[in-house]
Design brief:
Keywords: Signal
Number of strands: 14
Organism: Collinsella intestinalis
Strand content: 15-25%
Radius of gyration: 22 Å
Number of helices: 8
CATH topology of one domain: D-Maltodextrin-Binding Protein, domain 2
Structural class: alpha/beta
Distance between the termini: 28 Å
Largest sheet: 5 strands, mixed
InterPro entries: Solute-binding_3/MltF_N
Strand order of the largest sheet: 6-3-7-14-8
CATH architecture of one domain: 3-Layer(aba) Sandwich
Helix content: 10-25%
CATH class of one domain: Alpha Beta
Order of helices and strands: EEEEEHEHEEEHEHEHEHEEHH
Protein name: Solute-binding protein family 3/N-terminal domain-containing protein
Amino acid sequence: MIGRKFVAGRKGMVGLVAFAYAMAMGLSGCSLTTPTRAEVEPEPVKATLGADDLIEDGVLTVAMDMTDAPQAMTDQEGKPSGYYADIARLLAERMGLDLRVVSSADVTGSLSKGKADLYIGARSGEDDVVESGVLVQNASSIFAKSADGSREVLTVSATTLQGAVVAVQSDSAAQDAMDSAGIDTTLKTKSNVNECFEALADGEVDYVACDSTAGAYLARAYPGTVFVGTIAPMVSYDAIAASGTDLADQAMGILEDALSDGTLEAIFRLWYGDLPFSLDDLALDGVTFEQEAPESEEAPASEGESGEPAQSDSLNSLG
């Protein structure tokens, strides 16, 4: 899913660092000693990017929308956290640079106005920018709880949902997706997606409809709760870099290597558990929609019951 395409524009883990654990044989018997992480010196990476490539020499400045949990958020100490933040750390580590994260929802502005060297989490097909490769896909989806508490994916279809009770965040894109699907269900609205999953765990509802990423993030804490399929168009999000620069080439190479050596999937699993990396062709049987909105269009912004644009799912507890 990583493609060699880049942007026009300005110039251009929970770290997943491999520690080399040394084991030494004792003078007597077969005792083994293993150094602590603090004692292991990671192999230094010599930076090849300089002031001509970066906003600040020696620092990779990465922009992301810090309100887009669990992709990007701040932890209890106010530090950057989430899937995108871990990818930013990976890039900085493998480039031999320090990392600075700035919060912005303006992809083109962050790059063209010199606020960031790289933007992580832009929607594929954003005007004036070209993606470095898909990092995550998101769509309104259905989650269910297995009877035996296993993580086995359940078979759910539009027919299965007929007559079911489904928890959904009020005025969310997932609520709109359920309304548009034409399935005869009873929707039980909640103020946030956490409450939806609590209702599923308590047996108050049969299913949860929510963003696939938010749902997968929370499902980790509820044994037997699994993603079963999408009910709305899928949208892809990417890392963005400036065109024709050493920074762009290095970022591309690192993402390709991280995909092939399993590092990217390891970071993905840390945040999203068993969610499939690709949501292509995972729509529930009997639910028909265009798999992905045309690249020239903006992300869907349909209106909820309140008359305001439908929102992505909000989380009220992170960890």
